[in-house]
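In the present case, backbone shapes were mapped to integers, as reproduced here:
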Amino acid sequence: MNNSRNIYLKMKTLKEAREILFDLFSSDKVLPSEFVQVADSVGRVLAEPITAKLSSPHFHASAMDGIAVKAENTFGANELSPIELTVGENAFFVNTGNALPENTNAVIMIEHINVIDENSLEIEAPAYPWQNVRKMGEDIVATELLFPRNHVITPYCLGALLSGGIFSVPVKKKPKALIIPTGSELVDWRNAVIEDIKPGQALETNSFVFGKLIESCSGSFIRHEIIKDDMEKIKGAVYDAVHSDFDIVLILGGSSAGSEDYAKNVINDLGEVHVHGVTIMPGKPVIIGSVNNKPVFGMPGYQVSSIVAFEQFVKPLICRMLEQPDNERKKVEVELTRKIASKLGVEEFLRVKLGVVGDRIVATPLPRGAGCITTLTRADGIIRIPNHIEGLNNYENVNAELLRPLSFIKNTIVAVGSHDNSLDILADQIRSKHSSITLSSSNVGSMGGLMAIKKGVCHLAGSHLLNTEDGSYNISYIKKYLPNISIRLVNFVFRDQGLIVPPGNPKKIKGIEDLGRDDIEFINRQAGSGTRILLDYRLQQLGIEPRAIRGYENEEYTHMSVAVAVLSGAADVGLGIYAAAKALNLNFIPVVTEQYDLVIPKEHFESKNIRILLETINTAKFKKRVEALGGYNTERTGEIIAILD
């Protein structure tokens, strides 16, 4: 095994790296052209200017149903002195689109004609020259420029091209990329059996994502078969590509500093590495090199990291090859729901959920892991944190690049608070009947949800805060922390909360009293969550000090994350809901049945979207789906528990 490790060259800023890339591969290189049928040309870039071969219309055409006349023959007609015309001599019946008969220059609408008999007509008003006529060349005149060089053909363009007598067009060949997925751990999902995937193996997905990204910016691609960690085989694939008709080569994976990260050495051996590492997050490990005067990229293995690198380097390069602008996303001003720390010297691309609350667009950060593809699929926007600041403050106004239309964001119900699996069912059930409405839930714990309501950055919060004095839920906390806000408290579900343990309960855990044992590793929920408050209350009842529990300080933000920690062996036990344990086939030791409510400010309670949400949770179908998760009771679901004014 090769134990040598790469070291990053002096990392470049995003601006520096892009300048190096574009200086190396400027638009001086002209892509070859090819002819394609007009019907197949949408999305292609014209290689030459296109001029019309045919006028449109190429004859004088009637724009109405009626009679074609010579306007001069109708002058003087009025109600008191109508003019009689003879069919076939000075009046000719025409339909819309018909060519005008010779020696006519106007059309009188059929409803303005009095028919005397089959040969005679009478008009009571004169026509003027070219009335109701589409003159020859009204739209297009032969030889006129239809579209200039570098114009991108749209579906609308087809009509103009065909009407102008153009049936094929010269277009630039699509920049062609070879995508080379590398890594001994990779498994081709097309041949994979889920049950056979071993720890350490990973489904190869990036090449398929990149292929469609390349097509979306008018390029084409070929996907190479997976190459294991073999430097000579990777080198051979790159060599063959740069000496054939490929314009770009992407080596996927192997761009970091590990002992089996070969992309840098491959590029160096065949050509030159110009950039190894860019001060962006995610996307730092990207490599920009040249081999045989062609761009060769080493792309990070983590999915989000690789996509950010693609959008910042590969996409704009393809656009330049096609002499097209790299269109920037629309930006809007948003308000952050919480403070965000960031590393000085690194430009961060922060994925966020967006929603309109009152007159503000609020942004809730998503997890920041470079390998978490769902942070992109769930994101509505991206906030770029500059490299010269160390983060963003609570409720600071910043710009976000939109990943979805503003109309989508305006129809988003923003829920912040405690996590519950049934929220996913609610989101899906709403979309099944109201496709324009989206439920966005952020998991910050019950107390975090109440604070979000206090700051006015959400429409509702999920909460299950136990009053340890009287056993009630949520009301005492709302009175304490939201004293000046009118609230409607609606029951969502009752759910079973307990200890999640591996199948068979190998440590023979019986209850919370066992958490203090030396042989047990615990996984906790974050401070401020209802589950954490429940745990601390039970520990106090039992006289167990939190510091006596191994893993008490290790926190997760959702019940499913707790369950995964137990499933993976990272912990022996965690406190969570039965539905999470059931979903992953784990054992469950009941502790309590708790009340999970929706805390809704009065100002949003009567809104259309919240009304639809409440109607949805009251349906039998929603309740049936929730109960199927296990550990839920929906007997009071949708009931207003309290009105707090």
